[in-house]
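Holo prediction — 2'-O-acetyl adenosine-5-diphosphoribose.
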Amino acid sequence: MKKAVIFSGAGLSAESGIPTFRSNNGLWDNYRIEDVTSPEGWEKDPALVLDFYEQRFEQMQNCKPNAAHYAIAQLQEQFDVLCITQNIDTLLERAGVKNVIHLHGRIDYAKCECHFLIPPQNIDEECDYRSEISKAIQMGDRCPKCSKKLRPDVVWFGEAVSLPKREIRRILPEVEVFIGVGTSAKVYPASSLLYYFDTVPHRYFIDPDPPEHLRLRYTFLEGTAAEKIPELVASLLAK
Ligand code: OAD
């Protein structure tokens, strides 16, 4: 089967009602980023952090996949599709997309706070507990393995992001189509993936305001995900 890779950011879920990070009325408008998405913010005020992620959790439950998510699922009829997303929502999975890597974690998982990646916190005794959750984490929820606090399984500023380099290297020679969608490409290291696919024959970038520095690498399809992904998928399936 032909292979396709899709790299997405917040714009993919915008038309499902989840605001992007850097737009006006973006996600950060009511919070100071460092208060709710950093290990330091967690140490200072875990209740505020859990409140922020409870809102994200409920928002995700109340949202539905949009036409772009469903079109990506449809692409699987003829392509072996790998989705690499920066999004913590699970709208791709709910639309039926099978192979999704969440670079920045998932809102529907909790993990032990021992996962702090900034030393010296627990450097010698990191606990690897991680589990799916059916309701948002509450103050007082504890890790069943080591009884430290449970925290959201998301990547915070200052924490490491591991890129699926081995997987990409393995499939790259066979990838025919690469689609970047709905990302400002401003957050490293995730954005560096946009430079890995130069050898792929068909490379598209879908965004109403695509990052100008990528213009020479991609065919820009300027518009929203829910408009442009279904059109592109229809043309790929018709080939
Ligand atoms: P941004 O908010 O930085 O960028 C969103 C992109 O989506 C912009 O390029 C918009 O033009 C585009 N956009 C808006 N509406 C769209 C639509 N309907 N269809 C398609 N595109 C649309 O979000 P990200 O690039 O995802 O990280 O941000 C990357 C990371 O920054 C996030 O994963 C998060 C944040 O810090 C962590 O939390 C670790």
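READOUT: The pocket of 2'-O-acetyl adenosine-5-diphosphoribose is lined by residues 9-11, 14-15, 20-23, 37, 86, 104, 155, 182-184, 186-187, 207-209, 224-225 (CB under 6 Å).
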